[in-house]
User: Fold this.
Amino acid sequence: MHCKTLNLPQLQLSYLEWDTGQEPVLFLHGLADHAGVWLRAGDFLADCYHCVAPDLRGHGDSGKPARGYRCQDIIADLEALLAHLGWSSAHIVAHSWAAKVAVVWARQQPQRCRSLVLIDPFFINRLPAWMQITFPMLYRLLPFLKTMGPFQTYEQAEHLARSLKQYRGWSDFQRQVFQRGMEQKADGQWGSKFVFQARDETFLDVMQVAGLTEPISIPTLFLQPEQGLNRTAWQLQPYRAHLKQLQIQKVPGNHWCFLVEPEAFNAAIAAFLTQF
Assistant:
């Protein structure tokens, strides 16, 4: 695995690359995460696949401009990354909010997607405008945003992380993922590398952009964690209606199944990709 950087006009895009295999696979992390969440998956697939996992703008070690965190900004970065890699298309594996980005991208540029793997998607539908007044409360209450800090010490941040669902069990892998996503700020405090301007603009964007609006014929695997967000037939209905080559597979774990149950997750991804 190699850590690399692509210089774009507005920012640097950091990414991880496993380049021993051939078939291209692009991993997209969810909101407030980073490319390191795919370390186990990339290692698992590396013999057969050429895997790339970017830190999306505003996350990880990628650039953090003052503005420019809409879905279209993310897609433009991904288009530039594919061009840099020499890929005309790839299998897209996307988690949570990034699964919505992937669906919008697939709708707009279907030739880019050999297949889609959607892992417990979040924000797939356009949120009603009145929900904007609840954003300050959501910023405080959503567990995955709590690691943004600030914390007086790294130890305080880690203590909180150990109580969160994505770090259940606190394996060496989870500890590594958490550490890669944290940094000491200029004032000496600690917090996530994910930045507030990315959080705020992304939440505004999900009110304005709908994911599933028309039929998509790309082969798609919907991974449904047993303790995830999408558990009911009502929640799955939009995917069944719009994704015309849809497979749904339950996997153990929660919304972050690739962190809490990586072996089962990796096996599910590998089995799906062998179909192509």
